[in-house]
Amino acid sequence: MARRSIMKKGKIDGLPKFGGKNIVMVVVDRLSKHAHFITLAHLFSTFSVAHAFLDNIYNLHGVPCSIVSNRDKVFLSTFWKELF
């Protein structure tokens, strides 16, 4: 994904536990429609989401120019602080 890509982030929760995890974070590149599905444990923190993003998105594609999320501004602010 090019640095100018816009990522859309969401989550699917309420799933049965598998390997201690029951939430799927979905990250989609809005240009290519390429999707990543990242598993998380219930009661995740901003720290764990940021590290999952680093391990699964940043390491493969670098930093996107923007992230669209259904989370509030406080969560996103803390998320970006955890990344940098």
From TrEMBL:
GO molecular function, one term: nucleic acid binding
InterPro entries attached to this UniProt entry: RNaseH-like_sf, RNaseH_sf
UniProt source species: Gossypium australe
UniProt-recorded name of the protein: Gypsy/Ty-3 retroelement polyprotein
PANTHER family xref list: RNA-DIRECTED DNA POLYMERASE (PTHR35046:SF18), ZINC KNUCKLE (CCHC-TYPE) FAMILY PROTEIN (PTHR35046)
